[in-house]
Amino acid sequence: MDEDALRHINSLYGAAMRLTRSPADAEDLVQETYLRAFRFADRFESGTNLKAWLHTILHNTFLNMRRQAVRSPIAVDSEIVEQSVGEPDRVQTPEQILMRETLDVDLQRAIDSLPDVFRQAVWLRDVEEFTYAEIAEMLSIAPGTVMSRISRGRRLLYQRLTGKPRRAEGLRIVKA
Amino acid sequence: MMKSCRDVDALMTPYVDGELTATEASTLDAHLAVCRQCRDRASTEKVVRQVVQSKAAVLGESASPGLRARCIAVTPPKRSERDAEKTGREGWRRLVGWAPLSMAAAVVLAVGAVLVLGQNKELEAAFVAQLAIDHDRCFRQLDDLVPGFDSREAARVLAGDHGLDIGVPDESADLDLLDVRQCLYGEGGMAHVLCEWRGQALSLFVVPGRSDPELALEIVGHEALVWSQDETAYVLVADQGPVELSLVADYVRQYTD
Known about the structure:
The structure holds two protein chains of two kinds. Chain A is mainly alpha-helical. Chain A has ten helices and no strands. Helix content of chain A is 66%, strand content 0%. In chain A, helix 2 packs across helix 3 and helix 8 crosses helix 10. The longest helix of chain A has 20 residues. In chain B, helix 3 packs across helix 4 and helix 6 crosses helix 8. Chains A and B meet through helix 2, helix 3, helix 6, helix 7 and helix 8 of A and helix 2, helix 4, helix 5 and helix 6 of B.
């Protein structure tokens, strides 16, 4: 399993960076993930998705590390956050704006600015292309919750990218 | 009956992702045809997915060589691999006779937490565990070495290149020097001497600071011995079992007193 597992290091590091937003913390998280993966290698069912299994460990390790960290946690009540981006905004032809010219750095920044639960859901789906079931398993949440987080995450990301305030009518173009 | 926005809500994400069955999709299509709000929502979500997907390669991160090394270090070596490594090294050594090995480039380690000796038992154990991991990693990287190394050369390199004034023990019937490196754990300024004691991999770390009293630890499959002289601490690390660390310590002390 060792070499196969190490093949996913970039994917894990990417996810770790999105979770911690700090290279040093992300590296510690990835190393700890591998440490646990190898220690519990016998629990991995061969034939199942190794990458998804490693991401599950990464997620749980992240939660543990954050729980242990004494620094004040960014208390995210996911239910409240999820409601706060509640109903869909009235928007028109988003394609033009986003497809036109989203700078990579802007996109990265916008993703990083999302609340944890949405950032993670969008990342695992749209960057890592995991299935809803795999993500549900990874995060220990229901598949329906996965989908609604992805949905809300995408809408929130859209708002961040376009700079459009919530509930505004139509679109405001920020960059000429 | 026409579905409400609430009814179709759960279908939205799989719709955007193209994962609905034809029947489900036509249900949602019928709703979208008459609901501007949901239509906009679907198109917003679709475009975000497309943008993120299309940028996935750019958004992805690359693990640094340092992180790769750290992760390889935690990989349990397969028995056969470990044996092969050993024979490989010995074979190579026979080839060059007992010509001394050379210096590898200093290994710079990125460590999140600053751990220093002399604080408390728990921190010291964590610090020594880190050294044990480093011991494993550095021995795995020994393949990169080029010939040309002995205790005088080691001391010269540590002093010249790294400003570390450290008495490196001479080679003896028991002790083979393999390499020295600078470690930047903690505050930096730490030397790592890689050697073999009667054929067994052994690391000597020379660390600024004191640790009292003398400390013997069994940690992450390794044994470690920590002692201090003046304002310098010495840490010996070896795989658990075959090496009598107190004997090695006695030998090393002749050169550091």
